[in-house]
Write a structure and sequence with these properties.
Strand content: 5-15%
GO molecular function, one term: hydrolase activity, acting on ester bonds
CATH topology: Rossmann fold
Number of strands: 10
Pfam families: Lipase_GDSL
Helix content: 25-40%
Largest sheet: 6 strands, mixed
Keywords: Glycoprotein, Hydrolase, Signal
Number of domains: 1
Protein name: Gdsl esteraselipase
CATH architecture: 3-Layer(aba) Sandwich
InterPro entries: GDSL (IPR001087), SGNH_hydro_sf (IPR036514), SGNH_plant_lipase-like (IPR035669)
Structural class: alpha/beta
Mean pLDDT: 93
């Protein structure tokens, strides 16, 4: 695979070269950005604390790398939308559901862990699926706009101006839970039956936000779930289904089929709105490369979880999740974190580490994984993300 259209260079090396060039360019002029806010829709991959604002429960070692404490992000540090905000010169996004300490002048994050695109047919307390599906997140967005229009004139300093919605970047990273939620029970063929509805809901959401004034949309595709430690442990498969990198072939192929469906749907949506940017972001390829060749990009471990229990190839125990302690068969088992999460792609078996999120964001900023071609540098002086 040709990365960033640069030959004989690793993803890490290519990203570093591009990044230094971006920093040098941005320092030549006063920092500016056409995007004054980010509005994000998603699940745990970009949750900045929404789920745990609604259902407080997160403990250590989450947040250990950057924040040095749990802050509602299901990883050791920052998620992709954090890095993206930093790169655009914006503060971290406050979760829409966080009532204390939030500031929405530069956008809001509607993402919550365990969210799906489609409305859930069960309760959080039965299946673990979040009630805040994409449709609910869209309703929250609409209500947010109503409140901005009503309250901004009264001098509320924590809200943006009413014209912000046409000056914002709208990001989507959601659908993984729709894909994986019933995968073990009904199989790939069963899941594929309702994936067109998932794609349709995403495109219809974009169309509704367009009606609210949105003009720039970035939709991240699904990650290669066949490489995640959790699914390698939980999903049924034969040894013949494992590729040379330790990932499940059939499940990853199914994700590619979904991603192609999403890409085509976004192409059709783009044709309807000639004055909008509807961008498909192939983060799948970036993460697949990290899982397959971690040592080529400054990491050490691909399909092994940093925070888990049991050691071995995956260090994942489906009975004891990261940070938890349980009595099992007379033994006290605790899923603890490694001391060097910066060497791992997988944080807890299902979420990426801050290190992997940072590399993925570098790829987004570079623009080589966009369809159609789209340059953030034309809109913003990209800032270092550290």
């Amino acid at each position: 695979m040709k990365l960033f259209k640069m030959k004989k260079m690793s993803l890490w090396s290519s990203l570093m070269v591009v990044w230094f060039l971006l920093i040098a360019t941005s320092n030549l002029v006063e920092s500016k950005c056409a995007f004054e806010a980010i509005f994000n829709f998603g699940d745990s991959n970009t949750d900045t604390g929404g789920f745990y604002a609604a259902f407080p429960s997160q403990g250590s070692p989450y947040g250990m790398t950057y924040f040095k404490k749990p802050v509602g992000r299901p990883t050791d540090g920052r998620v992709i939308v954090d890095f993206l905000a930093q790169a655009l010169g914006l503060p971290f996004l406050s979760p829409y559901l966080q009532s204390i300490g939030s500031n929405y002048k530069h956008g809001a994050n509607f993402a919550t862990s365990a969210s799906t695109v489609l409305l859930p047919q069960t309760s959080l307390f039965v299946s673990g699926v979040s009630p805040f599906s994409l449709e609910i997140q869209l309703r929250q967005m609409k209500e947010f706009k109503v409140k901005v229009d009503e309250l901004q004139s009264k001098g509320n300093t924590n809200l943006p101006s009413p014209d912000i919605f046409g000056k914002s970047l709208y990001t989507f990273y959601i659908g993984q839970n729709d894909f994986t939620g019933n995968l073990a029970r009904i199989g790939i063929s069963g899941v594929k039956q309702y994936l067109p509805k998932v794609v349709s809901q995403i495109t219809s959401t974009i169309k509704e936000i367009y009606g609210l004034g949105g003009r720039t949309f970035m939709v991240l595709n699904l990650a290669p779930i066949g490489c995640y430690p959790m699914f390698l442990v939980e999903l049924p498969h034969e040894s013949s289904d494992i590729d040379q990198f330790g990932c499940m072939i059939s499940y990853n192929n199914a994700v590619v089929d979904y991603n192609n469906m999403l890409k085509e749907a976004l192409t059709q949506t783009r044709k309807e709105f000639s004055d909008a940017n509807v961008v498909y972001v192939d983060t799948h390829s970036v993460l697949l490369e990290l899982f397959q060749h971690p040592t080529s990009h400054g990491l050490k471990y691909g399909t092994t979880a940093c925070c888990g229990q049991g050691g071995g190839a995956y260090n994942f125990n489906q009975q004891v999740f990261c940070g938890n302690t349980k009595q099992i068969n007379g033994q006290t088992l605790t899923a603890t974190a490694c001391k060097d999460p910066y060497n791992y792609v997988s944080w807890d078996g299902i979420h990426a580490t801050e290190a992997a999120n940072k590399l993925t964001t570098y790829a987004i900023l570079n623009g080589s994984y966009f369809d159609p071609p789209f340059s953030l540098q034309k809109f913003c002086d990209i800032q270092p993300i550290g």
